[in-house]
């Protein structure tokens, strides 16, 4: 039986200060813990057993997903005291891996049909199939160059500008045969992208790429995390159905506020007259006071926005306080409990 393994042990360093108190794999995306989007995709492929490979702040992830029952799957965990790298983490799960395994980076958002990826892998009798996506600039990713038959002929992690020979990159989703475990040393830091994949190019391994035509977005930096929200808000990426949580209703007088159809507000928000909210996501229990404007932004739970404040293309962590008339310029990212004083411009 195919199982899935999600690599969710990274520190999320590029998402700081947002991912300081909450590990990146469970940062809220449209108010849903991120990993749930992946669990949903995995379930749709008919896979019900999922291994979460953790290292950084494992408790916070385990507290949300437990044994998986609430989400209709079986979840098991592996935990590395010290991160062992992407391939090392797979190796650390060896005793839970019985067969072909679907491995996902814990920070990629996609609606790729994973069942189709597995079918592709099977028909090519591949040992490894990686999902590839097209991006404008591959330098921040793993560059994948397939030949006409789909066979990977080059893999370069984080290529320099002058090494970029195409625009297809590693989407961070692999189908791996169990035999792959034999290629990974039992000890030490091992990376699929830097050690294992490049080494496979020269030894005749059946290594294929599946080009996804679906939505794909990495969420690992504030700009990308915001972009993933716009993917959802615009309807390009559909929201999965998260098991109901109990939230009080939002409160506003609809004749006195302007909240567009696409914005997503979790429960318990209080929105005062004259507020404008456009193309944004607010977590639960936020309070937005008279005449404030929130546009193209993501605001986590419990944040208070005082009157006449303006927030554009920004991300605010939990329980922030934005003073009256303050102005947050596009690109602002504030960690939990940040305070912005009245009338300041940042
Ligand atoms: N358990 C465990 N242990 N997980 C890890 C470890 C580890 O030591 N190191 C990284 N991870 C997890 C991270 O949590 C993340 O979900 C995933 O592995 C990939 O690590 P990142 O640190 O996010 O890598 P990246 O974003 O720079 O690059 C990777 O993703 C790109 C696509 O977004 C590479 O796979 C690239 O080739 C790829 O293009
Ligand atoms: Mg990443």
How helix-rich are the residues, as a percent range?
10-25%
pLDDT < 50 stretches: none
Count of DSSP-assigned helices: 6
What is the number of domains?
Answer: 2
Beta-strand residue fraction: 25-35%
Structure description:
With 346 residues, this protein is an alpha/beta fold. The protein folds into two domains: 3-233, Alpha-Beta Complex (Spore Coat Polysaccharide Biosynthesis Protein SpsA, Chain A), CATH 3.90.550.10; 258-340, 3 Solenoid (UDP N-Acetylglucosamine Acyltransferase, domain 1), CATH 2.160.10. 16% of the residues lie in helices and 28% in strands. It has six helices and 28 strands. The protein has helices at residues 35-44, 58-65, 85-92, 114-123, 192-200, 222-233, and strands at 3-8, 28-29, 32-33, 49-54, 74-79, 101-105, 108-110, 128-134, 142-146, 152-157, 168-176, 207-211, 216-218, 258-259, 264-265, 270-271, 276-278, 281-282, 287-288, 293-295, 298-299, 304-305, 310-312, 315-316, 321-322, 327-328, 333-334, 339-340. It has a seven-stranded mixed sheet, with helices on both faces. Strands 14-17-20-23-26 form a five-stranded parallel sheet, with no helix packed on it. It has a five-stranded parallel sheet with strand order 15-18-21-24-27. The protein is elongated and about 65 Å long. Bound molecules: guanosine-5'-diphosphate-alpha-D-mannose and magnesium ion.
């Amino acid at each position: 039986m195919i199982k899935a393994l999600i690599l969710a042990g990274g520190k999320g360093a590029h998402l700081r200060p947002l991912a300081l108190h909450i590990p990146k794999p469970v940062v809220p995306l449209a108010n849903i813990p991120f990993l749930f989007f992946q669990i949903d995709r995995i379930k749709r492929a008919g896979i019900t057993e999922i291994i979460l490979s953790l290292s950084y702040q494992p408790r916070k992830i385990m507290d949300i997903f437990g044994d998986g029952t609430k989400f209709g799957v079986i979840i098991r965990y592996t935990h590395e005291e010290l991160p062992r790298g992407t391939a090392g983490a797979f190796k650390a799960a060896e005793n839970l891996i019985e067969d072909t395994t679907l491995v996902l980076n814990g920070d990629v958002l996609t609606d790729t049909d994973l069942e189709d990826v597995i079918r592709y892998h099977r028909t090519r009798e591949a040992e490894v199939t990686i999902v590839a996506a097209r991006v404008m600039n591959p330098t921040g990713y793993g560059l994948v160059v397939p030949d006409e038959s789909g066979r990977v002929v080059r893999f370069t992690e984080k290529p320099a500008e002058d090494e970029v020979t195409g625009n297809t990159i590693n989407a961070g989703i692999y189908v791996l045969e169990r035999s792959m475990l034999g290629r990974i040393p039992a000890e030490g830091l091992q990376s699929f992208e830097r050690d294992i994949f490049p080494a496979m190019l020269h030894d005749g391994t059946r290594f294929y790429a599946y080009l996804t035509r679906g939505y794909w977005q990495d969420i690992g930096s504030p700009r990308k995390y915001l972009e993933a929200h716009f993917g959802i808000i615009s309807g390009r990426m559909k929201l999965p159905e998260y098991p109901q949580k109990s939230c009080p209703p939002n409160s506003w007088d609809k004749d006195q506020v302007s909240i567009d159809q696409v914005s997503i507000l979790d429960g318990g928000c209080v929105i005062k007259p004259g507020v404008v909210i456009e193309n944004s996501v607010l977590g639960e229990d936020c309070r937005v006071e008279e005449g404030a404007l929130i546009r193209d932004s993501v605001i986590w739970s419990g944040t208070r926005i005082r009157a006449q404040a303006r927030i554009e293309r920004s991300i605010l962590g939990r329980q922030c306080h934005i003073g009256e008339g303050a102005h947050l310029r596009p690109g602002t990212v504030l960690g939990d409990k940040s305070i912005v004083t009245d009338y300041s411009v940042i």
